[in-house]
């Protein structure tokens, strides 16, 4: 197959981890006879530095013309004092909105070799295998009106039926392809948007009789993600709750540096990126963990290109390197020296060859 | 001293645990020569059943005429299908608003005897000693306009300078009386209300040079509460973020059944209540853990009545009963049989006598 992929390395460790991920892509291309045309573009701080715009037009155009996007990470202290339209995160928010990427998908699964790094007791963390489906282009993040004076500020939390229906359908379909359990998270005892959300989930569930749905309040969910995370299969929620809960969930298994994500829109196109940030403190030192970026490539191959074999090969390689006891410094416990980003990537490439 | 306390037992296990707390109050009155005039009133489901109103006028009036309020818990499946103005939670939201209780204070401290019940690894949970200061009468919970049709819903997130200033001052003062560290939590990279919040914290910090302030994003905070909760001293945040983060924080030490809280307004008056809910499944069985309600009484004596000795006596009694290995069924691990609510309370009363 021939596919065009736009690569947005971004800031901090973004370029290092995307370089590792690109090497994996190239190895897969050779081994499985695919052609991946890579086109690089700017986003975030890198784009601000180059052209005073966290999301240049040209970047959006290249993404639009491609089959998938691979993103590293954006942000860093260099731009922290900038006015808000010149902040790296604006690039991230804008690309989601402009490409219509309404569904953020974050799988979180315990990795036996890494359980020592989990803050949770082993017996609680070990069975975790869940996916958070976060609505990504609505709610408090984008709604109007918003306003700020010196004495008053307003943000609007708006959801339309259409916005809720498409994300809820995405989650039901995903739950059906997994263990058939869906937790819909809202704050229906307080918010009108949550009441509409809950109503639509109730309507939709009739069409998915094979999926068992539970409504949960966001505050109880924040507790249960810690006390009994293995009880979850698929979680669906609105943008702001999803931001908080998905970050909370990302640390429970101790493998934050391992977690991929996708932002999609229901037509196969998607943006794939590690969950971790740009980690400016370790940028340029060749010590970042490239696993999340590499696993984001696996997610891209499976979900955007239906390359199941290739995706599994990458995941298998990553887990086998970990099982052999090779870790980057973030996961290092004791004994063996940590591998650098390029050394660890080389191990994965060897496995794939 | 003579004090008038309005007791709102509420629903589920509310009546049982407040009964235990009231016994403690009576024992303290006798031992330290105080007069506590107790007046009982209705709230939540109990009030809906009695007079079709989750917060009767009379209840508000009694509260207003008293020096402090002791609340059990509200809610239960019996009222879950009611229209929203006849839901028990409405009583809770209304009493906060009508009494002007803008500051919800939730101390969370690891209890050595209970660390086995924590979902976190012992070395992470054991040093936890933090307080969450949640804004309680503003933001998404109360702002207008709000709207819901079949196809669209809107909630408004509004904060005024005055609302932010008073809660931020409360938190600075509390931090000053503790370890001098304040984490102000917002989502200033996205929300205008958070930008105003952050600006006001920056202005206020000049007046508290002895307090070290850090701004944190709500998503990172949700992670750090799990990975390094001992790093926090005082956390201050807006209403909805506070709802989520305080529930998350309440489970990290394994002692949810032990946690008191207060909702105050800066003039010494406050409503004191356990953090746990009404637990309808175990209501009426005399097995609920009354510790959180009893510790809420301690918090009331200390914060509302400046009875430091009395408050410490209660806390000492509770911890000594726990250290002696007496637990209610929620905390029972193995071996010894669990004590009932009244048996466990009797142990505490013995210690106090
Ligand atoms: C950088 C920020 C605007 C963004 C968000 O809140 O969506 C990030 O936290 C994320 O979750 O991707
Ligand atoms: C019952 C509900 C409305 C309430 C809230 O969200 O404030 C509760 O969760 C709490 O935290 O006291």
From TrEMBL, chains A, B:
Alphabetic keyword roster: Amino-acid biosynthesis, Branched-chain amino acid biosynthesis, Cytoplasm, Leucine biosynthesis, Magnesium, Manganese, Metal-binding, NAD, Oxidoreductase
Organism domain of life: Bacteria
Names of the cofactor(s): Mg(2+); Mn(2+)
Domain Isopropylmalate dehydrogenase-like, chain residue ranges per copy: 4-348
One function term, GO molecular function aspect: magnesium ion binding
Record note on cofactor: Binds 1 Mg(2+) or Mn(2+) ion per subunit.
Keyword check for Cytoplasm: yes
Binding, NAD(+): 76-89, 277-289
GO cellular component: cytosol
GO biological-process terms attached to the record: L-leucine biosynthetic process
Pathway(s) served: Amino-acid biosynthesis; L-leucine biosynthesis; L-leucine from 3-methyl-2-oxobutanoate: step 3/4
Matches recorded under InterPro entries: IsoCit/isopropylmalate_DH_CS, IsoPropMal-DH-like_dom, Isopropylmalate_DH
Top-tier EC class: oxidoreductase
Catalytic activity: (2R,3S)-3-isopropylmalate + NAD(+) = 4-methyl-2-oxopentanoate + CO2 + NADH
Gene3D superfamilies: Isopropylmalate Dehydrogenase
Site (Important for catalysis): 141, 187
One Pfam entry name: Iso_dh
Function: Catalyzes the oxidation of 3-carboxy-2-hydroxy-4-methylpentanoate (3-isopropylmalate) to 3-carboxy-4-methyl-2-oxopentanoate. The product decarboxylates to 4-methyl-2 oxopentanoate.
Subunit structure: Homodimer.
Family to which the UniProt record says this protein belongs: Belongs to the isocitrate and isopropylmalate dehydrogenases family. LeuB type 1 subfamily.
Name of the protein: 3-isopropylmalate dehydrogenase
Protein's organism: Psychrobacillus insolitus
UniProt lineage: Bacteria, Bacillati, Bacillota, Bacilli, Bacillales
Designated gene of the protein: leuB
């Amino acid at each position: 197959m021939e596919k065009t992929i736009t690569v947005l390395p971004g800031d901090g460790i973004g370029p290092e981890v995307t370089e590792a991920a690109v090497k994996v892509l190239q190895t897969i291309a050779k081994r499985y006879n695919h052609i991946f045309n890579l086109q690089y573009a700017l986003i975030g701080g890198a784009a601000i530095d180059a052209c005073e715009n966290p999301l240049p037009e040209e970047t959006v155009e290249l993404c639009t013309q491609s089959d998938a996007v691979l993103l590293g990470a954006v942000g860093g202290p260099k731009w922290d004092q900038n006015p808000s339209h010149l902040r790296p995160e604006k690039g991230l928010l804008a690309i989601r909105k402009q490409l219509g990427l309404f569904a953020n998908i974050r799988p979180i699964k315990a990795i036996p070799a890494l359980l020592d790094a989990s803050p949770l007791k082993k017996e609680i963390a070990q069975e975790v295998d869940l996916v958070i489906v976060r609505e990504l282009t609505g709610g408090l993040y984008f709604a109007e009106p918003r306003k700020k004076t010196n004495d008053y500020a307003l943000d609007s939390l708006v959801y339309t039926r259409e916005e809720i229906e498409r994300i809820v359908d995405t989650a039901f379909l995903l739950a059906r392809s997994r263990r058939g359990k869906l937790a819909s998270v809202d704050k229906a005892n307080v918010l009108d948007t949550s009441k509409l959300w809950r109503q639509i989930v109730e309507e939709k569930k009739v069409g998915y009789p094979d999926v068992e749905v539970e409504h949960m309040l966001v505050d109880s969910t924040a507790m249960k993600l810690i006390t009994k995370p293995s009880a979850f299969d698929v979680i669906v929620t609105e943008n702001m709750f999803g931001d908080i809960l998905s970050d909370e969930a990302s640390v429970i298994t101790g493998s934050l540096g391992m977690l991929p994500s996708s932002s999609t829109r229901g037509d196969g196109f998607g943006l794939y990126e590690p969950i971790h940030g740009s980690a400016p403190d370790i940028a340029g030192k060749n010590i970042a963990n490239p696993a999340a970026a590499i696993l984001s490539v696996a997610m891209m191959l499976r979900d955007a290109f239906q390359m199941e074999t290739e995706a599994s090969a990458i995941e298998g390689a990553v887990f086998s390197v970990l099982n052999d006891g090779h870790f980057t410094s973030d996961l290092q416990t004791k004994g063996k020296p940590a591998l650098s980003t390029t050394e660890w990537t080389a191990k994965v490439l060897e496995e794939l060859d």
